[in-house]
Amino acid sequence: MTSPVDTLEKALDQAGRALDAVGANQLDNPSTCVGWTVRELASHVAASPGRFGQMARGEEVDWAADPGIADDDLASSFRSSADTFLAGLRELPEEQQGSAAVAVAEYAVHSWDLVASTGSDVMLDDAVAETALATMQEGLTDENRKGAFDPEVPLPDDATAYERLVAFAGRNPRAFPG
Residues in domain Mycothiol-dependent maleylpyruvate isomerase metal-binding (predicted)? Predict the structure, then answer.
């Protein structure tokens, strides 16, 4: 069985590849995250490994704070903080690695957001999507999704793992073919 931290490593890798594929000419475009540009989404993704690391250490996290990462440093900043986050998680006992599952969901959804928002051809891992969906279905209810997630979007039975994940997160995957 794959550990949550190993799945997180895959999720971080695909998020890094999705960030690498963002073109400078795409940063001001709207993203699949309502009210966010591609720049705002990419900045959020780039800053989040450091913030998840803070969470794992029991520190207070301000998710709304401006990360202050320059546009041309988004991918490199992400990779550096992702490596630090992973190393820190691997040092913790398994019972203290709970933030890994939540982080997998974060990176799975936002990797799709980046790919769909930019039309990138970055391949996304269905196993990461399945793990993320299970985590979100376990913790996300109608009551606590307000403000962060729109209601689940209904899909036909032939939906892919990623379509089911992002539909659960309130995005219409078929409205953003990439």
Answer: 9-113
